[in-house]
TrEMBL record:
It holds the Pfam family NmrA. CDD domains: PCBER_SDR_a. This is NmrA-like domain-containing protein. Residues 6-221 form the NmrA-like domain. It comes from Penicillium nalgiovense. One of its GO terms (molecular function) is oxidoreductase activity. Gene3D superfamilies: NAD(P)-binding Rossmann-like Domain (3.40.50.720), UDP-galactose 4-epimerase, domain 1 (3.90.25.10). The lineage of its organism: Eukaryota, Fungi, Dikarya, Ascomycota, Pezizomycotina. Keywords: NADP, Oxidoreductase.
Length: 448
């Protein structure tokens, strides 16, 4: 195969896309083109050619990919369907190597492949394999790397960085392969350099194999003042709950996390790679010392002197100057740009948008990893279209924030204790309360 020089990347502004783009540029081996949506506000280095495209238009994508030797897709899972036109366009434009948005667990494992969260990736597999069969010039490589080591750790996927309760999936002793974002970027570069050896197959790469217990032991070593309380969580139970949610159309973060955890920590799901391509790609494995350094940095213990703190001897003048600069940045960020959505406040004149709208980067959908839905505060993420809509959404939000039941009250409602106490207090209502709420709860449906 001819040397790959011209590389197009889709999804270059995401959590993984940025490190991959940086690795491609740092190698100085490729002429890099970034494909970006017309509406994208992402900024890229001046040395990068940016082409605005419509991901739903095969002709538009074909024109953008003409002259490219390879395409690297780092589109998010939620945008998987846009890869189908991208694959077709790559074939028509004469692209020789396509790297789909794989970058995940070992979904070549039959058990992992059975998890619904990966079905969209498997559909992409079929699409690129069909193109490769029908058009020999078109080839592909699937990169599998396990969970992102640094990214997942930073967001508490392996253990809570703040101490307290932390889940141990299936006991926390199951070894799994994991890789940093930077190493994945390097793997992309090396796959393109070793195009013949990586042709039409899956490539496995890892930084190291570890366990949750080992990670937590290192964390306890570098942060002895922080206390953790492990709790066992069954990935089998998580999978059952996730499948039930999917079956009822609830394709949310909690359900996806159940499948992710099952594929990484579940027995027989291939979380630990048996063979890797690190040697072929020239990527050395990391050591326990490297892992400790990473954990130390994330826990913000830069040295044996302990956690960095504000200098108590700092002058008021210096402190005010620092806060003044931070305040200027905060004020700039608080400016709203969209007059149809925003944070509402009310004064004597009516409703108005007082600060920047609440936004959420969908590329960071894993940020809330392993946290149950009930710990998140209520937040309306609705488009507000007119004044009446503003008013109704505000009232809805105020009701949720001010009328919540206390944990004790909520528990009494769920256990039925509330109705028992109410019946005991109001004798005139005893019969109705008893037969409506108490008897059925404790003794089942009445039957003759």
């Amino acid at each position: 195969m001819e040397v790959i020089r011209n590389v197009a990347i889709a999804g270059a502004s995401g959590a993984l896309g940025s490190p991959i783009l940086n690795a491609l540029l740092k190698s100085e081996l490729f002429n890099v083109t970034v494909l970006a949506r017309q509406s994208s506000q992402a900024q890229f280095p001046a040395s990068v050619k940016v082409v605005r495209v419509d991901y739903n238009s095969v002709p538009d994508l074909t024109a953008a990919l003409t002259g490219q030797n390879a395409v690297v897709s780092v589109l998010t899972t939620s945008a998987m369907e846009t890869q189908i036109p991208l694959i077709e366009a790559a074939m028509k434009a004469g692209v020789r190597r396509y790297l789909p948005s794989e970058f995940c667990a070992n979904i070549g494992n039959p058990k992992a492949a059975s998890l619904p969260v990966y079905h969209s990736k498997l559909a992409i597999h079929e699409a690129i394999k069909q193109q490769a069969r029908d058009h020999p010039h078109f080839t592909y490589t699937l990169i599998r790397n396990g969970p992102f080591l640094d990214w997942s750790m930073a967001y508490g996927f392996f253990f809570s960085l703040d101490g307290g309760s932390t889940p141990f999936y299936d006991g926390g002793d199951r070894p799994f392969s994991t890789t940093t974002l930077a190493t994945i970027g390097r793997a992309v570069v090396e796959v393109l350099r070793h195009s013949e050896e990586t042709r039409n197959r899956a490539v496995f790469v890892q930084d190291l194999v570890t366990t949750q217990r080992k990670m937590l032991a290192i964390a306890q070593k570098v942060a002895p003042d922080c206390k953790w309380t492990p709790s066992d969580v069954s990935t089998a139970d998580m999978e059952i709950m996730a499948r039930d949610k999917y079956a009822n159309g609830m394709v949310d973060l909690a359900a996806s996390m159940g499948f992710f955890c099952r594929s990484v920590f579940g027995e027989g799901y291939g979380g630990e790679f048996q063979e890797v391509d690190n040697e072929l790609l020239g990527i050395p494995l990391k050591t326990d010392a490297d892992l400790e350094e990473l954990i130390r940095g994330l826990l913000q213990y830069p040295s044996s002197e302990g956690r960095a703190v504000l200098n108590p001897q700092i002058s008021d003048r210096s402190l005010k100057r620092a806060y003044r600069k931070m305040g200027a940045v905060t004020l700039e960020l608080s400016k709203h740009e969209f007059d149809s959505i925003g944070a509402l406040e009310e004064n004597e004149r009516g409703f108005f948008i007082a600060k920047r709208p609440f936004t959420f980067n969908m590329n960071e959908s894993m940020v809330s990893a392993n946290l149950p839905e009930e710990v998140f505060p209520f937040q309306t993420l609705c488009l507000l279209e007119d004044l009446s809509d503003h008013e109704s959404k505000l009232m809805e939000q105020l009701l949720f924030e001010s009328q919540r039941l206390s944990p004790r009250m909520k528990d009494s409602m769920e256990t039925g204790l509330f109705w028992v106490c109410l019946a005991a207090r109001y004798s005139s209502m005893f019969d109705e309360i008893y037969w409506t709420f108490i008897d059925r709860r404790y003794y089942g449906t009445f039957s003759c």
